[in-house]
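Job type: complex structure
Entries:
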Amino acid sequence: MQLPAEDPILVQNYISGDEKALEILINKHNQRITSFIYSKVLDRAIAEDIFQDTFIKVINTLKRGAYNEEGKFLPWVMRIAHNLVIDHFRRNKRMPKFEGTGDFNIFSVLGDDKLDAERQIIKDQIENDLGLLIEELPDDQKEVLIMRMYRDMSFKEISENTGVSINTALGRMRYALINLRKIIEKNNIVLTN
Amino acid sequence: MEQIYPENQNKCRLVKANPESVRFLLQYSKSLNIVNHKGMKFENNLN
């Protein structure tokens, strides 16, 4: 009786170009991996998709020669599958599905995040006005505020770029906001949408 | 010996990916060619 080949041998054969070894590996672990994925997502079609994505990653890694999990093929594949299951749930959390029935209209409870034309014009005006107000600030405060708010830089990056300490950058940001509020109050400007 | 395991211990459903999925993966593997050039790896899908 011929014993089934061990995973490390099959993996090595596949890396060496033996496509049949991949077929054996997939068929050998198909049920275990698919059942694992299914136990998490509880949907046959999604489990199937994640199974495919898992092995696409496996194939890419093996063909790139980036596999170094000597002797631990199945745990490695399971970990990839597990990560993809997590990705799936993260994606669904960002984009929740709702299956309505009957006369229920999903759009009566789900709004559109986009602003309508009027609100968009108001938003543009506010941003424009805010830009003019920022121009009124002292240069050192203006510089920090622009780096933080418009370029999304951290205070560490700001301090490196401006040559001042983080505390100084924080202080300048604080005074920039205080001064902006003062200008807004002084001129009775309304900046709301 | 005392039976310590619950009777319904393995209620999880065992499922397998469809043969089509497996076939797709095998075809994908055959079509994928990775070329190493000056330390950079280029992926080609030769369909």
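Summary: The domain at 7-94 of chain A is CATH 1.10.1740.10 (Rna Polymerase Sigma Factor; Chain: A). The longest helix of chain A spans residues 19-41.
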